[in-house]
Amino acid sequence: MRVRDRLGIGPEWQVRITYVMELSLVGMLFIGIERGSVGIVLNTGIALAVAQLPPLLERDYDVPLDPALTLWITAAVWLHALGTVGLPGAEQNFYRTVTGWDHVTHALSSSIVAASGYITVRALDRHSDVVQLPRRFVFVFILLFVSAFGVLWEVIEFAVGGLASMTGGQAVLTQYGLEDTMLDLVFDLIGAVIVATWGAAHLSDVVGAVEEWLGNRED
Q1: pLDDT digits (tens, 9 = 90+) for 60-105
Q2: Contact present, 83 and 102 (Cβ < 8 Å)
Q3: Residue 169 falls in which region: left (phi positive, over 0), alpha (psi -120 to 50) or beta
Q4: Sign of CA dihedral 19, 21, 22, 24
Q5: Which class for 160: exposed (0-12), middle (13-18), buried (19 or more C-beta within 10 A)?
Q6: Phi then psi for 46, rounded to 5 degrees?
């Protein structure tokens, strides 16, 4: 069963939802500009850039990303951007007011990081006769890859927050304490486990395209 079948909505609706999310990201960007919030502008700007990666990969590198995968990527960055904006007129954003928002976005984001790692190692494994990666090793690699990325992200958040405190500026990334950081890492692993378990069933087309691209690079 493919990703689009599990979502329970057809490809046309998946494309429409993705398009609405991208338009709303533009709206969030203008909200950030209107509020004079560097954090909102930066986070929504990055989200918009990431949302353009699927069509870029399809157009320039012939990497097949069906609407469900594009929706998955867009939803992850959209939820993160929405979390930084919150409700109009609210003093605090969803990251501060909605319990578990941070953890859901971490799980979704980490699943994308895990998918990137999975696609890379599987494509290398299939492309090269020298590289032989057992399935169990791929599973462990994805967990370690996502864990390392998650720790790096938390360090960046801590550094950005500390720098903002020292300079009196606005923190574009925020940590909410040690307990929250540990829970973030746990949810990072949840996203990684999901991809490591079901990645082969839903990412094989992308792996094949990357493998073909590697072959073309050698010709």
Answers
A1: 777 777 788 889 889 999 999 999 888 776 677 888 888 888 888 9
A2: yes
A3: beta
A4: positive
A5: middle
A6: -65, -40
